Amino acid sequence: MSAPTAAPPAIRPNDFLGIDHLLSDEERDIRDLVRSFVRDRVVPNVGEWFEEARIPLELARELGQLGLLGMHLEGYGCAGASATAYGLACLELEAGDSGVRSLVSVQGSLAMYAIHRWGSEEQKQEWLPRMAAGEAIGCFGLTEPDAGSDPGSMRTRARRDGDDWILHGQKMWITNGSVADVAVVWAATDEGVRGFLVPTGTKGYTTQDIHKKLSLRASVTSELLLDDVRLPASALLPEATSLRGPLSCLNEARYGIVWGAVGAARACLEAALEYSQERIVFGKPIAATQLQQQKLAMMALEVNRATLLALHLGRMKDEGLLRPEHVSMGKLGNVNAALDVARTARQVLGANGITLEYPVIRHMNNLESVVTYEGTADVHSLVVGGALTGIQAFR
Ligand code: TGC
Ligand code: FAD
User: Fold this and answer.
1) Which CATH number belongs to the domain containing residue 353 in this structure?
2) Ligand 1: which residues within 6 Å by Cβ?
3) DSSP labels for 82-143?
4) Which of 65, 219, 297, 326 is the most core-located residue (most Cβ within 10 A)?
């Protein structure tokens, strides 16, 4: 093999390993589009949204116009992008805020995917085009006050009454709950776990927002109350007949988080790098000290390693080779890595690290939700452990 003649390109701090080189032109274009949107629309405002515990609803339409809602789904107004392109979009959105990525994940990977994968043709026609455009918002109700990691123990029940279904129970911690137009609600029935599309104006359906959150503040989180909600037979997702239905949707959203967590980590690394070069202590920038350089090096290593892991899983998903156990390893690894990076970056910023003037503590606090929702780190460790040993250790 002949030696390469050109010198390797210079190191770029924001892409140390030159991972950009592994992306196609189309993937870079999508990435750049989302990065610009986040830079112009999210970054200047998100500190205020977080402080005021709100997210502007018009953002959904803007995200829809960019083609980011259900972007990896085919047809019905969806963009039909590759899994890798979808992942890159999640990365850039979460570099802005986990709440913005959550809005997109819940809409596209949970609510829309549930309808796309398990719904009837009529349900797809009715909801997906409007949801892709951000004109209708969806939420996904699986968790209950006493059933989080173990959704199979859910108490929400649906029973048949003639041709109708009667839905009764409670869902907890539901992203977009009170702002949704349609709730995908999972319930135990005599025939196993089934999914229902509940238009949120239906009698007996009410919501209550969860307040006093110190994480994911730029995101609506609600409780859903289902008091004998009567639904026609057409509300049932016909193709989902067991817990496999909701769990398959989680694979999609978890895959987006594998990428999204890298975005939050990258934003923290960038903030720490910039701050360390400007902050003068003992007469020199803290970036000139060995201790801070070690922190920066470890953060860069984690960000680059997590990006490569996400890209590898993206390529596998595009080739149809991705299994849920792979996604569990990705979510476990990348969210834990992002938390480490965020906590380290927060220390680099000293006292400034605790204010919303900088993005770091916001990302750090958000990641406490990200490591918990969509399967906690423990749950994903047990999935990976089960795959390694052949022994299921949940029960
Ligand atoms: P188990 O007996 O293992 O499985 C029941 C059925 O489901 C199938 N299955 C899966 N199918 C697709 N994808 C997966 N990842 C699957 N995992 C299991 C399985 O083959 C079986 O199918 P079948 O046809 O034989 O019936 O189920 P289990 O009760 O032992 O539970 C397994 C466990 C613990 C892994 C699962 O329940 C779990 O993942 N728990 C965590 C729950 C969770 O992640 N909840 C997230 C709620 S949504 C959310 O947090 C949104 S956050 C907002 C945002 O994303 O931004
Ligand atoms: P639990 O299941 O009670 O777990 C408590 C602790 O026990 C955890 O540390 C867990 O890892 C550990 N544990 C559990 N099982 C085991 C075991 N077998 N061995 C060892 N340790 C174990 N849900 C939805 O359905 N839709 C949404 O849109 C949604 N959005 C959310 C938004 C936010 C901001 C948050 C914080 C949560 C959201 N959730 C949503 C809920 C989320 O999915 C659950 O919080 C999560 O699945 C964990 O459930 P839990 O909180 O009940 O914890």
Assistant:
1) 1.20.140.10
2) 102, 105-106, 140, 142-143, 149, 151-152, 175, 242-244, 247-248, 250-251, 253, 324, 373-375, 379, 383, 394
3) -HHHHHHHHHHHHHH-HHHHHHHIIIIIIIIHHHHHH--HHHHHHHHHHHHTTSS-EEEE--
4) 219
Residue-wise pLDDT tens for the chain (395 aa)? 667 778 988 999 999 999 999 999 999 999 999 999 999 999 999 999 999 999 999 999 999 999 999 999 999 999 999 999 999 999 999 999 999 999 999 999 999 999 999 999 999 999 999 999 999 999 999 999 999 999 999 999 999 999 999 999 999 999 999 999 999 999 999 999 999 999 999 999 999 999 999 999 999 999 999 999 999 999 999 999 999 999 999 999 999 999 999 999 999 999 999 999 999 999 999 999 999 999 999 999 999 999 999 999 999 999 999 999 999 999 999 999 999 999 999 999 999 999 999 999 999 999 999 999 999 999 999 999 999 999 999 99
Residue-range definition of the domain harbouring residue 93: 18-132
Alpha carbon nearest to ligand 2 atom 11, residue: 378
Q: What is the CATH number of the domain that holds 234?
A: 2.40.110.10
What predicted TM-score, i.e. pTM, was given to this entire model?
0.98
Active site residue 374: yes
* Separation of CA 394 and ligand 1 centre (Å): 12
CATH of the domain at 40: 1.10.540.10
Neighbours of 194 (CB within 10 A): 23
Tokens 């993937």 correspond to what residue?
27
Residue owning the nearest CA to atom 18 of ligand 2: 394
